[in-house]
Design a protein that fits this description.
Structural class: mainly beta
Number of helices: 0
Radius of gyration: 13 Å
Oligomer: single chain
Strand content: over 45%
Distance between the termini: 40 Å
Helix content: under 10%
Shape: globular
């Protein structure tokens, strides 16, 4: 069983920045593919960013390319999402997800086995 705990959400003005963190349990975090998804009220959960086990391969949704950066620290069992130039349309609950034993980049929600509880990000105009 893998437990994921997100943190770092909050209220920020448009154009501002936030960094989300996701701490994972387990001794084999270094072989987990990790991803970030988000869900706004009344909308489906959507892919934001993903990273492979080593951090050598990344994937981003077109809507966040150039603004968001995903990274990981395997020594700390943590994945990060740095969000710059935030827009009101980035407002959502952000979830991290894990897929143990997958060496690629997973961009579809059903590819993931474990999910965090989510952290709210609200961007004011």
């Amino acid at each position: 069983q893998v437990q994921l705990v997100e943190s770092g959400g909050g209220l920020v003005q448009g154009g501002g920045s936030l960094r989300l963190s996701c701490a994972a349990s387990g001794r084999t975090f270094s072989n987990y593919a990790m991803g970030w998804f988000r869900q706004a009220p009344g909308k489906e959960r959507e892919f934001v960013a993903a990273i492979n086990y080593s951090g050598g391969s990344l994937g981003y949704a077109d809507s966040v390319k150039g603004r968001f950066t995903i990274s990981r620290d395997n020594a700390k069992n943590t994945v990060y999402l740095k969000m710059n130039s935030l827009k009101p349309e980035d407002t959502a609950v952000y979830y991290c997800a894990a897929r143990p034993g997958f060496t690629g980049v997973a961009t579809l929600f059903y590819e993931y086995d474990y999910w965090g509880q989510g952290t709210q990000v609200t961007v004011s105009s």
